[in-house]
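Two entries, shown back to back:
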Amino acid sequence: MIHRSKARTPSRSRPALMAGALAPLTLAAAIAGGAQAKVRLFSFDPADDSTRHVAGQLTFEVDQRLMFVKVLKILSTQGEATAILKPVGEEVLGPGGLSRLGGPQGRERDLYEVEQTAEGADLARAFCPGSARVWLAFGRVSEGRDVRVLALGRGPGTGPARLCRTLAFSYHGEWRIPQGQPVRDRDLRVPKFPY
């Protein structure tokens, strides 16, 4: 179901082969190629009891580009919930932004608002009970890396956001997506998917 990355053994001839393969590639072509979106699905296991209780195993659907990764959705790997995320600036959190809530040395700098669709609202309530608006601040999401997510919320009033909880996840693997086919969220819950 989920593909785990395998460590590769370095090869002495590899740099020469790579240099030969990259020689004709211009900077403009590299930038253009890197600018194209590549949707990937990374699965994560809860790394502590608190995260296991609140979130369980999650899959993050990401748009990976050359210079950045944008989280598009959170999918409950074992449940029926999907939350769509929208990137926002940290000014929505009030004075001090992410530094106030996650600490000045915090690595969770990619901020998203959880859209209040039916399933998104359910996940938002689980992550940040009593909040009218919920944001998630991610550390770097990439293949093979564990990640922390700060769940931030604000009640019905207009005060500053508060830190609801810190979620810790261990990298589990990557879903293999069939080439050229869009992935429907419900397919992730079919035992035989991916092929």
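entry 2 starts here
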Amino acid sequence: MLKIYLPMVISLCVVSTSASAHGPVFSPGPETVFKGGYEFHTDIHREKSGNEQEDEIGTEVAYGITADWLVGIGAHYSFLKEEGERNDGFGNLELSTKYRFWRNDMLAAQESLALLGDITLDTARDHPDPAPSEGATDAQIGLAYGYESLKWQRWASARYRYNGENDEAVDRGDQVFVDAAVGYRPKPPEYYAVDTMWLLELNSEFTQRDEQAGINFRNSGGTELFLSPGFFVTYRNAALKGGVQIPVYSDLNGQQDASDYRFNLVAEWHF
């Protein structure tokens, strides 16, 4: 019996300690890094809606205070193109944390829950103009669940984002994000071999209307739903993941351009 289960347990340990266990592309997972470990990732992100296209290059460094508690800092640079005009600039600085408060180890499987939070500081004074977030400090809190086995992974998360009042005294609408994802690994992972997983996410966004002096902005807020196929490729302590968000439902208030698509490509290293 031990000879049957031992390879499965070893394989799960490989998954749990490598870069392969760090969540889907467009939503958070509960995974952390080891105590004293660092996670570095850089990403390329694009959003296209109507005549507006925004590209971002971002980077983030996170540190494992314990095996269950992660803190990080990140920033990005934006390239905004709207109606043929181009505005580029640095985005706001973001501080983040994640605390995994529950973990259940099973035979060749593991599940866990984590609290997450982040604060977006008003540091980007040269951000593309006009910048709705200029002068505002935003905060987000959420809960993430993950289940991991040798072949299947699944995640679920819910987040609430408070968007602060900007320099023009506009109270930007708060947002709620609800996500679910599944991952399929065609063959069991090996630490010294490339590990590939295919992902499919369902991402939903609910945004309140902006308001100023108690008056709602008609052309703001609404609901969008995305179906997001993606991939996750790892080799030892390095990973590459990417995907495309495809809008499947949109109910935006007033006259707003619905999302055409969103794209994300992320490279990660753990050390």
